[in-house]
Amino acid sequence: MRLLLAALIAAQAQLPSADSIVQRYIAARGGLARLHAIHSIIYRGEYHEGASQFHRAVMGLLRPYYKLVGDPENPSHTFAEGYDGSAWEFYGDPGVVVRTVGAASSAGRHATAIDGPLVDYAERGWTITLEGIDTIAGQPAYRIRVRMLDGFEQLEFVDMASSLLVAERKVAPIHAFGTAVASEERLSDYRPVGGVLFAFTHREVELATGRVLNENHWTSITVNHALDPAVFSPPPFVRTPLQAFLEDLYAERADTNAVRWSYRDFRRAYPDADTHHGVEFIGYQMLKMGDIPSAVALLTLNATDYPNAGSAAFGLGRAYRTLGNSVRARAELQRAHDLDPQYAAPTD
Questions:
Q1: pLDDT for the residue numbered 177
Q2: 195 and 272 in a common domain
Q3: Per the domain annotation, does 205 fall within a domain?
Q4: Which of 20, 48, 57, 248 is the most buried (most CB within 10 A)?
Q5: What percent of the chain has pLDDT over 90?
Q6: Is 281 part of any domain?
């Protein structure tokens, strides 16, 4: 340990430039020409989150910036998310496409660079700063801060011996909703694909506790398959009047009065339509985007029109909790439990 500490102190005194470290990293992966020759990537493997079981995971990337969390060769008609110039999410039930903003949009767009965060950073308008040396898995690594065009920052750790990227640190909400969490994603098991080294294992841990948040184990990485850019956009489908109404509500989420007006207009025009599940879904999306006043207003209307639906009361309770109104949140969550015991009674 003392020898490692002495080596770190000596290395800190004569640090190379951030750009020279990036050049070493590019060379270690296979060189800029080989990296630039890759125009598409399909990752296939297993994903594990928390206590859940491993399940199938597929992700596609296509130059210049396309990303699909899903299979670009067999698109899902149930759920998908991606980036085609803006971040989006598709839900087959209730049949809605949402263009995300805020933390959800950030999560979608920050990992669209096909070569990773360090290659061609300046062309994207990003900056890098070498901050020193840390240890990752007991080995010294250069700590480089990357600042993206939108001001988001994350730390990249380049192993001093291999010159490969071995970890990334960032602070962001889990699932783009809730409190921001400081986490470290650890990259390992590099293997060559198309003349370029790729990390086949990614493990994200919470820095404060060491708790594993999620793991990706890629079983195959395929490069340079011909992919249609259209598969990186939401799937086209014909909206029913209810689906169109739900998307319109979401689009109006920054204007609470418009949301109320549209809701009442649709309910008058389609009095027999069952809107409460779809409206709950859109209310949640509004909360996720940070449009809390509109979410509360919409979910209040929903709970009023469906007074016997436990899910409507639960949705409103969650909205009040996000707003910070604990008294009303507790009342609605208790009402949800009274209407439907599947909803747990509030404990605080």
A1: 61
A2: no
A3: yes
A4: 57
A5: 85
A6: yes
**pLDDT score of 341 more than 90:** yes
Identity of the amino acid at 25: Y
Question: How far does Cα 325 stand from its chain's mean position?
Answer: 27
228, 320: one domain: no
d(CA 292, CA 320): 9
pTM for this predicted structure: 0.88
- The sign one gets for the Cα dihedral 199, 203, 204, 206 is negative
Q: Is the pLDDT of residue 5 over 70?
A: no
Taking residues 250-272, what's their average pLDDT? Answer: 97
Which of 200, 232, 264 is at the close of a domain? 232
HSE of 345, CA atoms in CB hemisphere, 13 A: 3
The DSSP symbol for 231 reads: G
Q: Does residue 147 lie within any of the structural domains?
A: no
Residue 250: which CATH number? Answer: 1.25.40.10
Tokens of 258: 């418009």
Alpha helices in 148-255 (DSSP H): 241-251
Mean pLDDT of 237-241: 95
Give the Cα separation of 221 and 199 in Å (integer).
Answer: 10
Residue numbers of the domain that contains 256:
241-339
